[in-house]
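Why do we bother with a discrete structure alphabet at all? Because it lets us treat a fold like text: something you can write down, compare, and reason about line by line. To make this less abstract, here is a complete entry for VOC domain-containing protein. Read it the way you would read a sentence in a foreign language you are learning: slowly, and without expecting to understand everything at once.
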Amino acid sequence: MLQQIKGLHHVTSLASSARDNNAFFTDVLGLRRVKKTVNFDAPDVYHLYYGDEAGAPGTVVTYFPFPNAARGRRGTGEVGEVRFAIPEGTAGHWAERLGNHGVDNIATDTLFGQARVGFDGPDGERLALIEAPGDDRAPWTGNGVGAEAGIRGFHSVDMRLRDDGAQGELLRFMGYEAVAKDGAITRYAVPGGNPANVIDIETRPDAAPAGQSAGSVHHVAFAVENRARQLEVREALIDTGYQVTPVIDRDYFWAIYFRSPGGVLFEVATNEPGFARDEDRAHLGEALKLPAQHEHLRSALEKHLEPLE
């Protein structure tokens, strides 16, 4: 069993409008845009990162906005809900705030005894805010949401699968333990991990497979401390039979990828070097930052990419 993985690093999804996506996560949810860059494999598409002040691992949701992309089809083999942690007693405040901003399909309930506010993102993606007592991560307050209610980072993700057997086995190999069960949902957590150390598997054996497009999660990234720990994880996964990519430099972290048995694309990302490697922390996410291999495209990209504000 691996001990290097500490919880979530980031979650990356697809969108249909960069402007709408940016407005939702900064103006409505109050997150900080910590990086404005491009998709390494499709540089005519943004890669937008939102999180806390520094973009700490376990706080960052990222998006590839493909202009005018059709909405994805919800189903199995994907992440069905991305959840953020909020302070205890603030679910009512958030439900009201979301309603005032015209957010769709707001619903309040409890999950494993914690108050939850579920709602749809701009492309129909299912998101939730969960009250997380004891989560002392400092929220970003620069976008008009006060510290008393601000989002702390990720709480968990919910993977909707036809069967949880092989996926659960993989999570246990990665250092997770099954800690609770609520109906069709089994909760896994990393003992001693970061505050974003929870994964839920929801089994839906009769549901149709998902179709990925706008509103779909592209991949889930798990956090390791550094490149040495990442190489240990890569070797162990390969020895277990997984097809794992070589290490890829993503400028702000190093990444490896593999497809999980349930169909969800997994990434293992390093906590180093972080988002301040090419921008002053006070100005994260303001300028368009390009990977070195695409810098020669800057003039064309600045004309092509949709203005965010």
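What the structure line is telling us, in plain words: The chain has a mean pLDDT of 97. The chain has one domain: 8-304.
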